[in-house]
């Protein structure tokens, strides 16, 4: 993408419309300074896609012309020619406003094009020429931000489409039946280690042997990401006892987040005291002590003093963020 050529297109369209830079910059739909407009026209900086649409309306041309110049031009990439779809060779000037209705719609089109190209976000980032991050791509697809035009060209090149198709959605393959395109099953699931430690949900249960991962539990990466969880910080443990019923049934599996080791009032944690592990709800006491509370009211609270908290034989292993169990026969 030649930024200076886009600037020339902007200048030519403005002059053809008989408008001065002062008139354009003073327009309520453009909201830019005269200097900013001049920088766009000189190719020093680039206007956002939404501003391009507003300028096209003001100049009575199509956004396609402002971005690509002659609407019958082709985009040359990798020594091959990707023509603008035939249906776009003479679009109505309002097609931008009808089809590109903002960042959210653009994000949907970017996602659609990536899925149809059978690429993961990591694939796109690793093969990009303009060096954007995975978080930027995710933000573009979520409609939180819009890519710059050079990023748009880069994405179009990777997806094998014309940039106009990413803006308008014209002739993009339908991906309604595509949910995700992982490279392998491991790209869908994270495997959380389950440790050979029996956690008490009663009056305490001695750990059985070393804390060794004896199996792994599969969780969708999408589930972890949506909750802001780091795979490497999670661990699964097995419970014994009924002191946390009905919240945590007997013989349930609990997953803890080892990033969260500072207790918060009312939350559930796994706590190690000497060689025993407990899963309890916590409450800070006046004076710096900690109260361990069972959801089963048949069990009395257990108070730990501030001095005991400072001892090495007490450890907050992590916050319980998930529990799973089998229903009784």
Protein described:
The structure is a single chain. By secondary structure, this protein is of the alpha+beta class. The protein has a domain at 186-324: Ribbon (Umud Fragment, subunit A), CATH 2.10.109. It has 13 helices and 12 strands. Strands 3, 4, 5, 6, 7, 8, 9, 10, 11 and 12 form a 10-stranded mixed β-sheet that branches. A two-stranded antiparallel ribbon has the order 1-2. Strand 1 (74-77) and strand 2 form a beta hairpin. Helix 7 runs parallel beside helix 10. The radius of gyration is 29 Å and the shape is elongated. The model is unreliable at 71-101, 175-185 and 204-210 (pLDDT under 50).
Under CATH, the homologous superfamily of the domain at 186-324 reads: Umud Fragment, subunit A
Low-confidence stretches: 71-101, 175-185, 204-210
Tell me how many strands there are: 12
Provide the gyration radius in Å: 29 Å
Strand content: 15-25%
| Annotated CATH topology of the domain at 186-324 | Umud Fragment, subunit A
Secondary-structure-derived class: alpha+beta
The level 1 CATH classification of the domain at 186-324 is Mainly Beta
What is the share of helical residues?
25-40%
> Mean pLDDT, nearest integer?
78
Number of helices: 13
* N-to-C series of helices and strands: HHHHHEEHHHHHHEEEHEEEEEEHE
Q: Which geometry do the CA atoms define?
A: elongated
Report the sheet with the most strands, covering strand number, pairing sense and barrel closure: 10 strands, mixed
């Amino acid at each position: 993408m030649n930024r200076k050529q886009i600037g020339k297109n902007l200048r030519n369209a403005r002059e053809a419309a008989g408008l001065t830079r002062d008139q354009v910059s003073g327009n309520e739909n453009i909201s830019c300074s005269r200097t900013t407009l001049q920088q766009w026209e000189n190719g020093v900086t680039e206007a956002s896609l939404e501003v391009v649409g507003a300028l096209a309306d003001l100049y009575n041309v199509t956004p396609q012309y402002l971005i690509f110049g002659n609407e019958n031009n082709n985009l040359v990439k990798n020594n091959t020619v990707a023509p603008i779809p035939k249906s776009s060779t003479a679009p109505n000037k309002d097609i931008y406003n009808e089809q590109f209705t903002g960042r959210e719609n653009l994000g949907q089109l970017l996602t659609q094009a990536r899925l149809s190209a059978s690429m993961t976000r990591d694939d796109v980032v690793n093969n990009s020429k303009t060096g954007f991050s995975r978080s930027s791509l995710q933000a573009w697809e979520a409609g939180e931000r819009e890519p710059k035009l050079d990023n748009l060209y880069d994405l179009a090149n990777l997806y094998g489409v014309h940039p106009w198709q990413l803006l308008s959605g014209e002739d993009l393959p339908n991906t309604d039946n595509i949910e995700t395109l992982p490279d392998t099953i491991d790209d869908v699931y994270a495997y959380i280690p389950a440790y050979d430690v029996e956690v008490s949900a009663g009056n305490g249960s001695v750990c059985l042997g070393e804390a060794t991962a004896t199996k792994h539990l599969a969780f969708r990466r999408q589930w972890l990401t949506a909750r802001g969880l780091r795979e490497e910080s999670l661990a699964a443990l097995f419970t014994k006892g009924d002191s946390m019923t009905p919240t945590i049934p007997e013989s349930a599996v609990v997953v803890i987040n080892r990033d969260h080791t500072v207790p918060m009032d009312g939350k559930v944690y796994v706590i190690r005291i000497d060689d025993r592990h407990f899963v309890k709800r916590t409450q800070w006491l006046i004076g710096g002590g900690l109260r361990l509370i069972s959801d089963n009211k048949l069990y009395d609270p257990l108070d730990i003093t501030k001095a005991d908290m400072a001892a090495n034989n007490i450890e907050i292993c992590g916050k319980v963020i998930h529990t799973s169990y089998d229903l009784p026969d």
